[in-house]
Amino acid sequence: MQWYTYIIYSHSADRYYAGHTQNLSLRLERHNSGNSRSTKHGIPWEIVYFEVYPTKSEAMKRRYGV
Questions:
Q1: What are phi and psi of 20, to 5 degrees?
Q2: Transmembrane ranges (predicted)?
């Protein structure tokens, strides 16, 4: 299964957040649900960029390089 490294943006907080996941649409829903501590302030979030990787370790390396 593929992995994603993504960047989301909040206009209300004027802030970016980078993460990695296997399910991009579900992860965005969770960010916008208010249950994610790191992104509960700034709702709504929108995906502004993503890349696809074959393994979790590659996605994580890219995330921490952003």
A1: -140, 150
A2: none
b/e code 3-16 from CB counts within 10 Å (16+ = b): bbbbebbbeeeeee
Cα pseudo-dihedral 49, 55, 58, 60, rounded to 10: 70
Mean pLDDT by 10 residues, the chain (66 residues): 97 97 97 94 98 95 80
- Asked whether the beta carbons of 40 and 12 are under 8 A apart, the reply is no
**Cβ atoms < 10 Å from Cβ of 61:** 13
pLDDT at 32: 98
What does pTM read for this prediction?
0.89
